[in-house]
Amino acid sequence: MASARKSASPAELVFIDDLEIWLTRKSIKNMHLRVKPPDGRIEVSAPRRLPLATIRAFVREKRAWIERQQQEIAASPRGEAAAASPEEVAQWKAVVSACVPVLIAAWEPIMGVKAGKVAYRNMTSRWGSCQPATGRICINVRLALYPPECLEYVVVHELCHLLERGHGPRFQALMTHFMPDWKERRAKLR
Fold first, then answer.
1. If you average pLDDT over residues 141-161, what whole number do you get?
2. What CATH code is carried by the domain that includes residue 167?
3. Quick one: 59 and 95 in the same domain?
4. Is residue 4 classed exposed, middle or buried when 0-12, 13-18 and 19+ CB atoms within 10 A define those classes?
5. How confident is the model at residue 103 (pLDDT cuts 50, 70, 90)?
6. Percent helix, strand and coil across the chain, each to the nearest 5
7. What pTM was computed for the model?
8. 24 exposed, middle or buried (CB, 10 Å; 0-12, 13-18, 19+)?
């Protein structure tokens, strides 16, 4: 895998009709097309010697699919979060910061833990974090865009880190003990 990365050329911006395509030439046999969150960026990986005309034809043929993927991304909570104004982020923080202390108070006695300071941030790559040494928990305000059971899942997940630092078998067993449907809740966040 590492050698394939080394042999890839840097991504090049190519316009195909009115679409911005990030094209990467690699030592591969087939072309790959991806539409990536949070903004619907279009990426194509193509064999080094494949003519640009072939890549253009491929992208044009997949245009309807690309547009559907971009619409789904834009309509998703992740897409909504990427386009949010500071006022919207402040509203999410108000909602999440009103709910989390109640959830923590409900779950602490069940789990036999005590959280420390709780912080709220607009994070792009994680739903929460925990510092077991201090008990500090940070919760992503974007959880306001998801069903309430997702926020509860993240709270229990972070409280579980007060009992087990990593995500190994013991952590998963604790999650299953406290919240048997945690995997279904987690799936809603993907």
1. 96
2. 3.30.2010.10
3. no
4. exposed
5. very high
6. 50, 20, 30
7. 0.69
8. middle
How many independent structural domains does the chain possess? 2
- Collapsed DSSP state (helix, strand, coil) of residue 44: strand
Q: Which amino acid is at 121?
A: R
Helix (H, G, I), strand (E, B) or coil at 23: strand
Is 31 in the same domain as 91? no
Going by C-beta distance under 8 Å and a sequence separation of 6 or more, which residues neighbour residue 168? none
Residues 173 and 114 in one domain: yes
Helices assigned H by DSSP within 47-135: 52-61, 63-75, 77-82, 86-111
Single out the residue in 49, 75, 101 at which a domain terminates: 75
Q: What is the pLDDT of residues 8-28, one digit of tens each?
A: 788 899 999 999 999 999 999
